[in-house]
UniProtKB/TrEMBL annotation, chain B:
GO terms for MF: transmembrane transporter activity
Claim: Kinase is one of the keywords in the record: no
Disordered: annotated span: 1-44
KW Cytoplasm (keyword) present: no
Name this polypeptide is given: ABC transporter
Lineage, broadest ranks: Bacteria, Bacillati, Actinomycetota, Actinomycetes, Micromonosporales
Species this protein is from: Micromonospora arida
InterPro entries: ABC_transp_permease (IPR001851)
Amino acid sequence: MALPEDDPATASAEAVAEAPLVEAPADTVAGEVVLRLTDLVKTFPGVRALDGVQLEVRAGEVHCLLGQNGAGKSTLIKVLAGVHQPDSGQVEWRGEPATFANPQAAMKAGIATIYQELDLVEDLSVAENAFLGHEYRSFGFVRRGRMARHTRQILSRLGHGEIPPGRMVRSLPAAGKQIVSMARALSHEARLIIMDEPSAVLAHDEVGNLFRIIRELTAQGIAVIYISHRLEEIREIGDRVTVLKDGRTTAANLPARDTPTRDLVSRMTGRTIEYVFPDRPTDDSAGADLLQVEGLTRTGEFADVSLNVRAGEIVGIAGLVGSGRSELLETIYGARLPEAGTVRMDGKVLRPGVGAAVRAGMGMAPEERKSQALLLGEPIYRNVTLATFGRYARLGFTNAAKERAEADRIAETLELRPRDVDRPVRTLSGGNQQKVVVGRWLLGGTKLLLLDEPTRGVDVGARAELYQVIRALAAQGVGVLLVSSEVPEVLGLADRVLVMREGRVVREAAAGELDENTVLDLVMAGSLMEGAPA
Amino acid sequence: MSDATPTPTATPERPQLPAQSPPADPAETAVASDKAGSGGKLSWWRGDGGDGAKRNLGLIGVLAALIVVGAVTKPDLYGDPNWVWNNVLAILQLASVVGVVTVGMTFVIIGGGIDLSVGAIVALAGVWCTTVATQSYGAGGMIFTALAVGVCVGLVNGVLISYGRLVPFIATLAMLVAARGLAASISNKQTQVSSSTFINDIAARKVIGIPILVYILGAVVLAGWVVLNRTTFGRRTIAVGGNPEAARLAGINVRRHTMLLYALSGLCCGIAAIMLTSQATSAQAAMANLYELDAIAAAIIGGTLLSGGRGTIVGSLLGVIIFATITNLFAINGLSIEAQNMVKGGIIVAAVLVQQFQFKSVTRLLARNRVTTAT
């Protein structure tokens, strides 16, 4: 679609600026390209998050972004929202090259973002949240009445006039909070609204309402970038689809309704980078049951999960964020208390608490490396020995020399780079930080390793090394329970796979019996497809 | 792998990894070598954190500057070595009581908490150990009482914070009010004179020319340094304050440790109560007023991060000594307490500003290194 060189509508924008507050920007021409990204690149230390993204969004359309975890969707959103600056590539906004130096600039230009974890101030009112940062004021006083009136107008435009503008956001349900987020977007006269998995926090019937609102917005010429893992939703609400994989656009502007699921899935997964997975042992070398979990339940997280892990076996759990997999792992590890069910190690029921789990020989590498596993300012060796320093101590006195030697041995085994164990962990790349977390459990006879997203944010080379390490551990008889949202990783590394969706195990099979598309279908079947055969 | 419970020193064999060690990157080795060697046998004294040592050098610089100011304003006094030596002892003696409290405070703050009740605990312990009933048990009974009261009140703080899940600020603020109230009611708002010559002698006497109070400060600082840097207790303190979630998931009992930290702070308050009672040869409910602010300020000047996870005992000690030196400087120049307090406030702000600047430049440097190594 050709871009108008001189936008005839710009002049009229000034004229209507003072006019009705709630109508869509008057200069929006339906079907006009509002946003065009060309060859966008963004790198972080150790990771190339965006590696040539193309995207074209038209006014009045719902443009869906599809991609697996780590495909670069979140980074792309943050670039558009002005949080990150691209390293190279062009952003064209309404026909003009644009750079958004900060979130305020992006909002001013008319790009509003509704993040997955809604960024509202819980203890301010609905109106205050909607106009946060650009309140109506005169002489330094906030004009509460005008703000409340305008908020009410916006809310009724969203079909939710019943939400009182004066109500505290804290007291609203998740769906109501989302409406407030959208009201904030509209208060900025947004021409493009980015929604990051908006349905993830909503119940079934609320999704329908969300779609109705989206349709009304697009009818007014506002463009929507819609991100979701649920293919069914994309079919229902989307106009066009762009697929991202490994930071690249693999398919652009596919028709959302007519493109076959197989095509979409294969474009999301057909990898340019082949991960090198270590070979599985040819004979069935796995030993006796190490971990037995029966009927484990936590309301709202997972229900009635039973599984077992044998010594020397790698069991993988595939599932999306929110499928209850991380919570399950933490419950097995004793970091959360189960409401029902038992966890047994070596046939003995574990007492609650992390301490008991560690003493029984469990170790966990949690999902959030930095916030859950590492002391970033402390040296590497102290992070490696965080769970074991007491064992090297005598009469309460730590043995730093011994700890350094042990950590150095681990660093050598895992090919940690750089290998100086006195460096603060902060200075390591993501992959090497992950090695420190895994290395912690190589000390002191861990029998069962729980790995939650072990390769998140880890570059390709370091991934292959981590896979080798995990397989080598299994070969020594360590049981491994692995959670990952990257299906190929689960299939390539694990001996046996459990597929989780919405807190339940929907399928269990040997890794060889499943392929990626089957698992993705199982994992993605959303709430709109409830009752679908597993 | 065996099915027995893990033996303490069990070491797994190395996983067999592909031999693909990359060629040494010059940038990488350059970064690695600036950190003085890796692994291997190291002396017992090494490893108190390079950053912390650098910060402490800055504090020593401040101290030197204060002495220069003193020498310039009172050249006649500073020209007399005898007077200088006595003045140094006077400063250390002035710093001794707050210094002991600050050691406990440093542990609490590194562990991610704060203890506003230290002054009140000192007063309560002081009053309790000087009641007529307690004094009838002699000096030993008085010392035991002071320490026991300190530990018990600290434990109450600790239980409220770690098991009752109160915010440390609120729990210890409540204790501040309550402990002083209890002290006032025990003492009936009277000053209780200590009749124990043993207790009173602690502050009055010197051994080899140095006041006993200074020895006590030295012993507490040394013990604090050893505990923080050389014991599992200290390591847990840093882990719990630096990243409680990581500590918990590594199997550390975060709650119990948090509780013990407040008990430790209470113990330091008990020791300080004996020292202060000895100095005044009496105790009263208003004693050790605002010690909590002095201790917190000293710890912060000393480079302890208020959010936890970082701090040094030596830095805290230097913080206390700097404050005492300022007080001393103003006293010998005959200046008012008001002016002194203004200068102290300025020094707190300046110290934190300087540390932030240093910290930022250090992290920026590290970030740059990371970019060069992570390609």
